[in-house]
User: Fold these one by one.
Assistant:
Number 1:
Amino acid sequence: MIKKRTGEIIVTNHKQNELLKKLYDTAYGRCLLKVLTLPAVSKAAGLYMDSPLSKPLIAPFIRKNDIDTSQYIMRDFRSYNQFFTRRIKPEKRPIDRVPSHLISPCDSKLSVYRIDSGSVFAIKGSHYRVCDLLKNSFLARRFEGGYCCIFRLEVDDYHRYCYIDSGRKSDNVFIAGELHTVNPIATKRYNIYKRNSREYTVLHTDNFGDVAQIEVGAMLVGRICNRHGVHEFVRGEEKGRFEFGGSTIVLLFERDAIVPDPDLLKNTAEGFETVVKYGEKIGIAAE
């Protein structure tokens, strides 16, 4: 379930959800998943989406998903992926520059969870370990008692993402894996944050302490395109992009680093994801 920050509940794509339920909740669907989640399949899909052969897919996608093209820098795209990674007009996503304000790194559906003393966070009754997400038990312990923010991008979201503050970052660490959908339907049966291909870095931020940022690939999303290795960054600077499909960004915060906005915590507790936009305030630095 999805809710806007105004309180309005959004009706999701029922046809897509029904298809995913057939894939994840039936025996024959799970057999098909073994093929669809292979990185090789994603790579093949990516090659097609990079080619001029995919260009005819653009116009139907815009119509089906009611994309407001006036928000974007539109041109004669040579492939579907060129369109999918289109840039938004800067004035359509203003960056909150108040240093103590935590901003969203992307357009997405956000859920916020407390990380307990065992470095575990719970989603709809299922428990996930931070060390499984990072493959690094030492690093995972640093986030005990903090917050886990999960930003789920759907196909009609803007698929570029930015830095949440100014600071410097470590190099990127890639973890190979499968490529399940990031739709909540999949989390009922699979720990996608443990199984999916992903890439993480530690952001040494000016206002929120050390933050782990993890980009998680999804079904038919084989490429997580981060722009920098070791790098000094500024708030709102583009960090990277996802190519084709839905994806997820996870932010891990240390204990007493941030205070999420109350509506986000309330919505998550009630089972709702909250629509947030690239650069908007979603919390504050803890005093």
Number 2:
Amino acid sequence: MNSGVAWALVVHVVGFVFWMGGLLVATQVLASHTEASSEEVRQAFQRLEVKLFKGVAHPGAALTVIGGVAVLILQPDYLRQGWLHAKLSLVAILIGLDLMAYFRARSFHAGNVQLSRRECKLLHGGMALVFLGIVILVMIKPF
């Protein structure tokens, strides 16, 4: 592996860690936010959720995509491998879950929708399962 591919993979993996970490923590905080009774606590949760999405998860997602595209430019033969197609399908699902959580949180913050703890936990669980699937596909490369 040449150093360009290695550095692109570093950017890709570090971005993915920040993206997933930010999303998983944000959905946990959001779940707690749904049950907060004090206005002061709700405002603190809201500030934290915004920081997690905009300051951790979404920059991580950007790094993930930039690193991933760089790897594909440097190693185009990956595009012929079945595991990568499955991984990219899971990444598309993850992007959908990310956007769903982000826009639901924004609507919740604006007072336009009610969120339940259960909905937040389902988003969290879905993201965790997709994360697990991506890691398995990358590490095992079953096809």
